[in-house]
Amino acid sequence: MAAKTGVLEGATFAKLETLEPSKLLFIRRWGELSGYWGINRTMAEIHALLFVSTDPVCTDDVMEKLLISRGNASMNLRSLVDWGLIERIHIRGDRKEYFICRSDVWQMFETILQQRRRREVEPILETIDRCLETAGNEKDVEVYRQRLKEMREFLHLVGSLVDLVVKLGPDALNGIALTMSKMAG
Amino acid sequence: MAAKTGVLEGATFAKLETLEPSKLLFIRRWGELSGYWGINRTMAEIHALLFVSTDPVCTDDVMEKLLISRGNASMNLRSLVDWGLIERIHIRGDRKEYFICRSDVWQMFETILQQRRRREVEPILETIDRCLETAGNEKDVEVYRQRLKEMREFLHLVGSLVDLVVKLGPDALNGIALTMSKMAG
DNA sequence: TAATTGTTTCAGATAATATTGAAAAGACAG
DNA sequence: CTGTCTTTTCAATATTATCTGAAACAATTA
What is the mean pLDDT of the segment spanning A157-170? Predict the structure, then answer.
């Protein structure tokens, strides 16, 4: 049989299985928040789908449950793999590829922190250094230079904090958070 | 004279003043990173413009230096005020409104943390609670329930950490980061 | 009050992004 | 190698987000 195609291939199997309302709700909300994470809605929804799925999920599942095309599913699954948020697995006796979500929430968080540092903090630090080289030394850019320096220092601190948080891990952090909140009364 | 209008009103004064290359570079980069912060490029560029400007900036300045329309400038300035990242000021003897950027980088960071918590963490926590109420109790959703709970716990931890970081402030955190990096040797 | 200057709004235009689907490429079994 | 199944790619298209500009509105001055 040739690959099913057209009209979302959906008419064929939209009826087969359907998402529980509770899971659907979670997926939709996760998608709505995607804007704040610099990823697109579909990518977030796929991620959420894997997160709420007990079993590994294949491309057809994604297409069916989220009602998206094969190409769309394929491309977004790949992005998620690139981000390190999901991984490909193979099930013996089945030729299809399946995907699972790294289920450890803390690990997910670590991945995101690292990615964001690489994609945001590093580039802006480079830019700041270059701006400082380029900027003149006249009196009237003194404020500007000063602010750039503060920003640089701050971003370094952020980097250190990320390291620290990752190093301590959730248990230690929970302990600290608890202690502090007690002290605060 | 009636308000200048049309063709970006720019032909009239694009020549008057121009941005130093160094500042322009910073602004552009800040804009490129906007995607990761859930705000649009122009909003980020305006913010960067205020950040690198020694003096207060008016709407006309923004239009001229970033080559955008009056409506665009007005709406994005308002959004920045809503976010709490910039503020309106008035200069005596001048009828125009001016804007300045909260220049303390740490305070900027605090504002963003709080906003993000309000816009992202709170809604997803609400949703998770609702999902847990809605979800069945059958065996096959046990994994799902478990994951939701872990996610909830994790988000609470994030909330506590935000509080902690804000409470400690940059100096204390710098100290801690330094100590830890020494220990790690 | 009317004239002047500055600000906001929003329908329509434009630009940027995401999505589809069919063809091409890849993977495997026999 | 050939046939079957699966995944990837990408030009065309659809959708969404953003921007413009002129009109409406607001504030100030004379």
Answer: 91
Tell me the pLDDT tens digit for each residue of B44-94.
Answer: 999 999 999 999 999 999 999 999 999 999 999 999 999 999 999 999 999
Q: Is pLDDT above 80 for A70?
A: yes
The amino acid occupying position B176 is I
- Pinpoint the alpha helices (H) of chain B: 21-32, 41-52, 59-66, 70-83, 105-116, 122-134, 142-184
Nearest chain B residue to A54, by CA: B143
Q: Which nucleotides of D are covered by protein (CB under 7 A)?
A: 4-11, 17-24, 28-29
Q: How does pLDDT run across B127-144, given as a tens digit for each residue?
A: 999 999 999 888 889 999
**Hey, what are B37's tokens?**
């912060």
Burial class (CB in 10 A: 0-12, 13-18, 19+), B10: middle
Q: Which nucleotide is nearest to B9 (CA to C1')?
A: D21
Q: Which of B22, B35, B167 sits opposite A134 (nearest CB)?
A: B22
For A140-151, the pLDDT digits (tens) are: 899 999 999 999
- Report pLDDT for B17: 55
Dihedral, CA of residue A112, residue A114, residue B155 and residue A67, to nearest 10: 0
The dihedrals phi and psi of B88, each to the nearest 5 degrees, come to -80, 140
C-alpha A105/C-alpha A98 separation (Å) is 20
Give the separation between CA A52 and CA B145, rounded to whole angstroms: 9
Amino acid A77 CA to nucleotide C23 C1' distance, rounded Å: 21
Torsion of CA A51, A54, A56, A62, to 10 degrees: -60
Q: What is the DSSP string of B78-108?
A: HHHHHHTSEEEEE-TT--SEEEEE---HHHH
